[in-house]
Amino acid sequence: MPASGSTLLRRGLAALAAFPLLTLAACGYGSEAEGGDAGARIAAGAEKTDGLDSVRIGYFGNLTHATALVGRQKGFFQKALGATSADYQVFNAGPSEIEALNSGSVDIGWIGPSPAINGYTKSDGKNLRIVGGSASGGVKLVVNPKKVKSLKDVRGKRIATPQLGNTQDVAFLDWVAEQGWKVDAESGKGDVSVVRTDNKVTPDAFRSGSVDGAWVPEPTASKLVAEGGKVLLDEASLWPGKKFVITNIIVSQKFLKEHPKAVEAVLRASVDTNAWINTHPDEARAAANKQLGVDSGKELPAGVLDPAWKSIQITDDPLAATLGTEARHAVKAGLLQDPKLDGIYDLAPLNKVLRAKGESTVDDAGLGVG
Fold first, then answer.
1. Closest CA to 230 of 312, 148, 311
2. Measured between alpha carbons, how far apart are the two ends of the chain, in Å?
3. Cis amide leading into 219 (omega within 30)
């Protein structure tokens, strides 16, 4: 009997958890990379936030998680939490971060939209809330220009995506359907061959010629360009206003209920970090890369870092309307049954922070609590 759409998505997202983490030493669900927390020493006389000894923050070693990278590197989170220690775990896969959130080993974290949707729907809306935005954009279709000279040439080619059912896989399958082409979502076979390949492996696959292109996030897209690839399509061009969510902030519902001041502190640090990134882009790029070096053991070269950084928009807005659209794309591709997303957002803490800073509040597109 063929697997159901929701089973396929769970399979694809759960498979991500099997991939090795980017950091050097695995610890639990993620890795607690040492160092890189500039100015993050707890100030003398500081008080604990909500009486907590620590708040455990999760994120990926990825430029689309720049808020977390820079916020850690420059000490924004520790400053906001006072005498409560900001502890970190670095992940390479959304499902492993969701598992850590469910187990209580992570309290709050940065994550992509598909794992957030899947985690929420699998728990019948009981495990997490999206409490803020972080980044938009940073996803491109990069191809071998000798084999693919136009969008119509993608037909019949082998195109990599990071994983069955992940955010970029869903986006590519939707784009393929819009061209009138047919692809079996589970096998990836059809008018285009979709080759699910871990982002760390994709540059080697591209170099060897085993794939003709890839629909991937940064910095993988810019790594392919450095290997001679050409950007054929920027996914941002497919969205109204060229904006779509690529990274959210999620929190355990239990932690949100029991420690609202700690959640507010992390969100305040996120807003402060985003403001600093947008007013100090060169310093922020360097800080993000430095933290990537701490987390993965290697910083990105300028030829990859610079174009990748330029394609990512840092934002407090979770761009909730685009999350709903991404969920519909997954349903259309047969990877997800119609999800119930009512209540996935609780933006009240973020909007409280934004109002206090004189900033515009953000909208949950009708998918909020209450």
1. 148
2. 40
3. yes
Query: How far apart are alpha carbons 127 and 284 in whole angstroms?
Result: 32
Mean pLDDT of the chain: 89
pLDDT score of 93 more than 80: no
Q: Are 40 and 72 in contact (CB under 8 A)?
A: yes
CB–CB of 344/254 below 8 Å? no
Q: What is the pTM of this model?
A: 0.85
Spatial CA neighbour of 55 closest among 112, 11, 105, 16: 105
pLDDT tens, position by position, 8-26: 444 444 443 333 333 322 3
| pLDDT for 29 beyond 50 | no
Alpha carbon separation from 234 to 138, 216, 238 (Å, rounded): 8, 10, 8
Contact yes or no for 277/316 (Cβ under 8 A): no
The tokens of 293 are what? 């070096």
Helix, strand, or coil (residue 311): coil
Long-range CB contacts for residues 53-56, cutoff 8 Å, separation at least 24: 53/84, 53/85, 54/84, 54/85, 54/86, 54/87, 55/81, 55/84, 55/85, 55/86, 55/87, 55/107, 55/108, 55/259, 55/262, 55/265, 55/266, 56/87, 56/88, 56/89, 56/105, 56/106, 56/107, 56/108
Instruction: Look at the alpha carbons of 43, 49, 51, 56 in this order and tell me if their dihedral is positive or negative.
Output: negative
Q: What percent of the chain has pLDDT over 70?
A: 88
Q: How do residues 236-260 score in pLDDT, each as one tens digit? A: 999 999 999 999 999 999 999 999 9
**pLDDT confidence of 85, banded at 50, 70, 90?**
very high
The CA-atom distances, in angstroms, between 247 and each of 4, 109, 240, 334 are 27, 10, 17, 23
User: In whole angstroms, what is the distance from residue 15 CA to residue 31 CA?
Assistant: 19
Residue 88: pLDDT over 90: yes
